[in-house]
Amino acid sequence: MERVSDTLQRIMADTLRRLPAEQLPEAAWDFAAGKAVAEKTRVLGCENRILVVEVPDANWRAQLYSMSPQFLASLNQFLRVERIEFNLARQQNPATAAGAATVKLPRKT
Q: Which residue from 72, 82, 99, 102 could staple onto 49, CB 3.0 to 4.6 Å apart?
């Protein structure tokens, strides 16, 4: 009897194979990384068999690099990837990150 996880994996593989090429890297990453990791990361692109993923900080980058072999094994079922690069997210200005608006004061005359 086929295990439920095997059935789900086969269904997911069939779904990913039907996606347009430009959507495949992000969808494959979401599947390989899992929901918790995918929510904290963002695929920036995939070129020359290198998947580039943005991560929130250096701790995330270190943890995900250590998990790269598992990610690659899963990704290569759907997408030919030789390496994953984890780039740090650019830090926003704290004022703009909090949604603060810039206000111009009237000039004194």
A: 82
